[in-house]
Write the structure tokens for this entry.
Amino acid sequence: MSHLQYNKLTEMNKIFTSVLVLLAFVANAQTADSALSNGGAIDVYYDFETGVKTNVNRTSWDIGLASNPRSSSIIINENAGVELYLYGSDTSMWSTVDTTGFAFTNIYNSEESWAAGAFSNQGTTHPDYGWGIYDGNTHDINGNRIFIIKTQGGDYLKVVIDKMAAATGIYTFRTAKLDGSDFKEYAYSKSQAESKDKNFALLNLSTGDYTYTNPDAKDWDVVFTKYITFVQQGPNSRYMAVGGLKINDGYDVAERDGVDVSDDDTSSLSWNTDITEIGYDWKSFDLNTSSYTMVADRAYFIRTSNGAVWKLWFTNYTVGTANYYFNTKLIKEGTASIKKYTKLNTMVYPNPSSDAFNINNGEKEALTVTLLNTQGVTVLESNVNAFSTTSISTLELSKGVYFLRLNTTNATSTQRVIFE
């Protein structure tokens, strides 16, 4: 090797080493960022990996229909002031709805799971899914309740979700003003190209139009939004709107207090799947300064659907504008450089179950099955071959709520299951 070749090779090695060092530094560097909600007028969907923010105007929709082939969840837009009430359990009363003397008792979206939207969380046990009853023969869910919804525009509408057809993945439902005027019928297909890869199809009930500005499920990690929760204020408590965060479906969160936020240790964390685990209470309002202060030494660790772990901690939240200022840091790489969260063609039944539940795998590859308790501890692991059904016994498990995570090579799905 000539002296010139040796020098060139040495320089190339130096450059290569420098690039590796730089990449390692970038991968472990923290990033200061912000989400500007314009006083809560927009929801901001945030992607940790890219830093991309997707803004969705809160006035663009009233209800969201789950796009997941196996979900029947229907949420309401609490950020826009949409309110939902249960009118009755007899859909034949549609033409005679009368709210004289009616007690308008609010129904809210679940703070634990996207699978229990406001329309869906009135169910008690399987086969009652909140707005309808599951048919064990057809696998359809047939509507059994009448709701009244107050839209963001202030209109009161009566609503019946008539059916979610298992074979076609089509929701059919109807709305009208309380006097029967402005009657509309809808048929929404979960396979609709514009929304099939999103968590929800968003519908404006005043215009009858869908909006597709929300990002695909794989393109966001947390959403900065407003939602309704029960807040204790001194001796008083009430449901009220708060500014906070929700995590994407299939994610886990661990809150850590009393340790400097610069510390990256995750060894003693307790993981939680509640979508509002980060929520709003990382800040408190200071009456003396009329500003918010951040809870000292509080950091959140978010485990995404591909196993990556990100650290998040807040530095400021502004009064009036409801702008969020925060830092993020990648703590652990995921299984792929770009995460993939997609819908799985699977069915889990019965849910709730008493002694066993079945997992039907309609995917062309095997499923990895992980069952976690509410503390995020794995209590069972199994596999389901492609295009097959496996029965899993729950006799040795304690009764209660668990979270079932199903994984393929590039996709994941998590849902709540109940053992009675």
The two ends are 75 Å apart (CA to CA). The chain has three domains: 31-49+221-332, 56-218, 346-419.
